[in-house]
Amino acid sequence: MKKLSIIILALTLYIGANAQDASNPAKSADNSTMTNGFIGLLGGYSLSMGNWTHTSYITGDAGKWLSNNPDNLSAGFAGNGSTFGIEGAWYFCKNVGIGGLVSYSHYAFNGLDSLSAGYDKSFDVDQITTTVSGGYDIVNFMTGLYFRFPCSDKLDVTAKLLGGFTSATTPQIAVDVEDGGVDDGSFYQQRCTANSFGYMAGLGVSYKLNNWLGLNLQGIYASSEPDFMIDNTNRNNSIGRLITEYKQPLTNFNICLGVTYLIGNK
């Protein structure tokens, strides 16, 4: 909390120091007027991080899934994925602006073999077939502060600090059990959607191709912590991995390339 207060204070002082420039056109390194804002598209590769990526299926001596094991409970089996979105900002002074980002990210399921082998050991049957439908889907609606630091008439270092609404959905997991030549049917861990507060922090570079078009390359760290309440259907007993709720930080790091339409360039 102390660190957050220091950051907020520093941002407040920084904005106040630059606010006096708001009534004057911002100038670049060669004294030409800078753009007042932008709107653009971005997309790239997203790396999942933290407990969310763990693929633990730890059993006891009898093959029973350990329901109180913290590694088992925190494992999210999330792989890497992709992200894309639209964002825009308006600079109310030379270096500081306000804007927003709407994005969608999809993450593959990772560790299916580990999960299926764990179920097989727990149930002690002839065959377990585990299938996954979809993956993790995350939608963000963020707003906050944008910063730019001109290096030349065409190149800027950029940063942003955003917060807002995150909606995340889990994959569906189906487990089919066969024993003694008889198919005992499938049970399902259903897809679940949960909403929460999320935040992003980004750093990158922007290059001005001409008076109305630019490119940017940025790294964006994002995190949220939705509280999933997961339904299990067609399940006759609690043998094996049974997840009815999941609350872990869904953290990810995105490497994005974007194209922007520059607004208010003179």
Explain this structure:
- The protein has helices at residues 2-19, 70-74, 112-123, and strands at residues 37-49, 78-91, 96-109, 127-133, 136-150, 155-169, 172-179, 182-189, 193-208, 213-224, 228-229, 232-233, 245-246, 250-263.
- The protein has 266 residues and is mostly beta strands.
- The chain has one domain (2-263): Porin.
- The strands form three sheets. The chain has an eight-stranded antiparallel beta barrel. It has a four-stranded antiparallel β-sheet with strand order 4-7-8-12, with helices on one face.
- A hairpin with a 4-residue loop joins strand 2 and strand 3 (96-109).
SSE blueprint and pairings:
Blueprint (H helix, E strand, L loop, with lengths): L1 H18 L17 E13 L20 H5 L3 E14 L4 E14 L2 H12 L3 E7 L2 E15 L4 E15 L2 E8 L2 E8 L3 E16 L4 E12 L3 E2 L2 E2 L11 E2 L3 E14 L3
Antiparallel strand pairs: 1-2, 1-14, 2-3, 3-5, 4-7, 5-6, 6-9, 7-8, 8-12, 9-10, 10-14, 11-13
